[in-house]
Amino acid sequence: MKQAAGELRVDFVGGAVAHRLRFGGGRGQSLAKAMGLRGGKTPMIIDATAGLGRDSFLLASLGAQVTLIERSEKMHALLADGMDRAAKEGGELREIIGRMTLLKGDAKDLLPQLSGEAILIDPMHPPRKSSALVKAELRQVREIVGADEDAADLVRVALKNARYRVALKWPVKADSIEGICAFSHQILGKTTRYDVWMVG
Question: What is the pLDDT of residues 153-165, one digit of tens each?
Answer without folding.
Answer: 999 999 999 999 9
